[in-house]
């Protein structure tokens, strides 16, 4: 499969050249990126490209995010360990696995059932027992499991879905790409009482977040 290097060496190089060099310094994030076998989350035909500096297709017109973007968004959550985290857009389950290595519990929502089923099987096979999966519209959040100390949205939104703000714990952080259907800005919102401190963390490009508080699904 990979001719000369073990996959750990591929991850070491990925972390060194794509992630540390661009300023990611959170130790738990760097360790998780070294530990999770990204090549097990991509389609067989793309396995040679699993550690490349770009997103990859995962079926259903969706993508597994670029490694750097996964690291940046995880660092922006500022997790210390033990948190209850909500992820919207399970996709391949790669970001879920990274989160599950750091947080206490990861609740993840995906609207495409076949992707969710595949990700669930993968995560179970790899031994993650602190992940709850759900097939529904993630723009509504997951009220029964709230509050969350961290919420991460891995699809591009037209605005911040209000239910996610409601379900964010005091001091918790919400990381979400907001913009148009093709290009977004990564927003970080930190809750203090009824107020949210907002910072921007650069430009990004995600597949659209569809749903009640997202974009309309124009194929319906
Ligand atoms: N975190 C993923 C990236 C997946 S791409 C990974 O690491 O592989 C974004 C995903 O968001 C897609 O799978 C898409 O189907 C999903 N998505 C889009 N709108 C959604 C919504 N309202 N609720 C849940 N999932 C959604």
Index terms:
alpha/beta, binds S-adenosyl-L-homocysteine, 6 helices, two-stranded antiparallel sheet, 220 residues, Rossmann fold, seven-stranded mixed beta sheet
What is Rg? 16 Å
Q: Could you say what the CATH architecture of the domain at 67-204 is? A: 3-Layer(aba) Sandwich
Give the end-to-end Cα distance, rounded to a whole number of Å. Answer: 40 Å
User: CATH homologous superfamily name of the domain at 67-204?
Assistant: Vaccinia Virus protein VP39
Largest beta sheet: strand ordering: 5-4-3-6-7-8-9
How would you characterize this protein structure?
This protein is an alpha/beta fold. It has a domain at 67-204: Rossmann fold (3-Layer(aba) Sandwich). Helix content is 27%, strand content 26%. It has six helices and nine strands. A hairpin with a 2-residue loop joins strand 1 (56-59) and strand 2. The radius of gyration is 16 Å and the shape is globular. The mean pLDDT is 96. The structure holds S-adenosyl-L-homocysteine. S-adenosyl-L-homocysteine binds next to strand 2 and helix 4. S-adenosyl-L-homocysteine (SAH) binds next to strand 2 and helix 4.
């Amino acid at each position: 499969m990979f001719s000369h290097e073990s996959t750990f060496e591929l991850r070491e190089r990925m972390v060194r050249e794509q992630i540390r060099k661009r300023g990611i310094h959170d130790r738990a994030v760097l360790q998780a990126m070294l530990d999770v076998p990204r090549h097990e989350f991509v389609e067989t035909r793309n396995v040679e490209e699993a550690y490349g500096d770009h997103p990859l297709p995962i079926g259903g017109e969706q993508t597994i995010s670029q490694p750097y973007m996964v690291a940046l968004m995880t660092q922006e959550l500022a997790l210390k360990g033990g948190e209850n985290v909500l992820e919207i857009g399970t996709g391949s389950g790669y970001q879920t696995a990274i989160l599950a290595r750091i947080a206490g519990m990861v609740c993840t929502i995906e609207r495409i059932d076949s992707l969710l089923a595949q990700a669930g099987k993968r995560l179970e096979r790899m031994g993650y027992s602190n992940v709850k999966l759900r097939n529904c519209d993630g723009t509504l959040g997951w009220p029964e499991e709230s509050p969350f100390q961290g919420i991460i949205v891995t699809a591009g939104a037209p605005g911040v879905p209000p239910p996610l703000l409601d379900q964010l714990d005091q001091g918790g952080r919400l990381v979400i790409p907001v913009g148009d259907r093709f290009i977004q800005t990564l927003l970080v919102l930190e809750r203090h009482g009824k107020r949210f401190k907002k910072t921007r963390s650069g430009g990004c490009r995600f597949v659209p977040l569809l749903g009640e508080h997202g974009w309309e699904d124009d194929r319906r």
